[in-house]
Amino acid sequence: MKVPEYDRRLGIEVYDTETDGIGGRIKQVAEDFIVEEALIDGSVARVAPEEVQKVVGEGENLICVLVKRNWDTILALEQVASRLGVGKRRIRYAGIKDTKALTAQHVSIWNISPKEVGRVRVKDIELRPEKFSTKPIRLKDLLGNRFRITIRQIEGEGEAVKDRIESILEEVKDIGEVPNFFGHQRFGTVTHIVGKKLVKGSFEEAVLTFLAAPRPLEEVDAAEARKKLSGTQDYKQALKDFPRHLKFEIAMLNYLARHPNDFTNAFRALPRRLGRMFVQAYQSYLFNRLLSQKLSMNPSKGGEVGDYVAELDSHGLPSKAATLIVQEDKMKINEDLRDGKKCLVLPVFGYKTEIPDSADGDVEREILSEEDVQLDDFYLPELKEFSSQGAFRPMIAPINDFNVSRISEDSLNPDRVAVELEFSLRRGEYATILLREIMKPEEPMNVGF
After folding, report:
1. Whether 243 and 299 share a structural domain
2. Is 379 exposed, middle or buried (0-12, 13-18, 19+ CB in 10 A)?
3. C-alpha angle 32/38/39, rounded to 5°?
4. Which DSSP letter does residue 25 get?
5. Distance of CA 198 to the CA centre of its chain
6. CA torsion angle 94 99 105 107 (round to 10)
7. Active site residue 98
8. If phi over 0 gives left and psi between -120 and 50 gives alpha, with beta otherwise, what is residue 210?
């Protein structure tokens, strides 16, 4: 089955299902893509709670639910910090949520009162105090996310469309899992390209790619400002030309207008987490390429000698450590894989990644060679905070609580059908990867991906 060129540019080269997709689009409106965060302790951040709870608990961290509509997570929290009059470092969160969506997640704010939080007023942002805690919110508190998603603009008529949708969804449900690719929103349009240039030490090229590389579907004023900067490299003029809503570009341009040749520290003008995302996006691209190759070689997803496995805890989350499968352990490990005690993992390349010297590491070495990248490159002496030692990531994402809640006429698009889905994924797994299996869009960027 043909994979879109856009997916291939992100390293996503295969499908897991064989049925033709239903087409359609996602995210026509924010309410079509609802994300609610779940923590390991059982807490779920609700977009609309059944009732308002009294703030309880003890500690210096106020745990709140942040509900945002069409907001980038980092920008939303900057707005909250500004309205509260506190430093951004006093606000902690577990995960970044989709921008074009309606999302609810937990955040903690150090040394603040519910009364102060209640005075925050930002359009399309709600901050709801829930409890006090002795500890701030951290990534390790995150279990995953619950999704309620509407796919719109599905072409066809009546029962024939419903039959096709149900056939595809049955295949997805029978498989019960999808390849654990990093999803489209991990990349933007140039993020992983900037990341590669940083890894290669090409800081000026990285700056110009971030600021001046064209973006598909971008507004005319932004596109023209990028094109002009590409030709002139006049950062002071670009600071006047760039639309104000491009806040991260404006932050970098502010620095470059004063220090036009300091391309390394220009990245320090950005929030640290955003800066690190460039390198992480490039790692994600390499992982996607590796996963695509491994699935093409072993579509059964069984454990083979030379593969890596990790233990799963009681929540279904993998340990950070991984074990190489050897012949004498292969049968037992495959039993553990079937019983849900272990999962197959692949390396997310970093400077501490170890690739077997044997043929077992041929695919990894081939990808790195094609990219002209070495593992040591992921240590950046000039930007040490962007360095990454690497990790392991599961090959497969189990789909939990999958349900087709409704198939109906599309209320926003006459003569079209809409389907509403509900499901849960673990942290680090992407709803768009499941949706691409169901929809199989020819032009992902044009239909909400």
Report:
1. no
2. middle
3. 160
4. B
5. 20
6. 60
7. yes
8. alpha
Q: How far apart are CA 150 and CA 405, in angstroms?
A: 10
Residues 99 and 228 placed together within one structural domain of the fold:
no
Whole-angstrom Cα distance, residue 260 to residue 226?
17
| Exposed / middle / buried, residue 159 (Cβ in 10 Å: 0-12, 13-18, 19+) | exposed
If asked whether residues 296 and 440 sit together in one domain, one would say no
| pLDDT(186) > 80 | yes
Residues 288-299 have pLDDT tens digits of 999 999 999 877
- Residue 370, pLDDT above cutoff 90: yes
- Over 90: is that where the pLDDT of 195 sits? yes
Quick one: pLDDT at residue 166? 85
CA angle 122, 447, 177 (to 5 degrees): 95
Q: Domain limits at 157?
A: 1-180+397-449
Angle at 87 between CA 86 and CA 90, to 5 degrees: 90
Number of domains in the chain: 3
pLDDT at 372: 97
How does residue 53 score in pLDDT terms, banded at 50, 70 and 90? Answer: confident
CB 390 within 8 A of CB 350: yes
Given 16, 98, 141, 377, the catalytic residue: 98
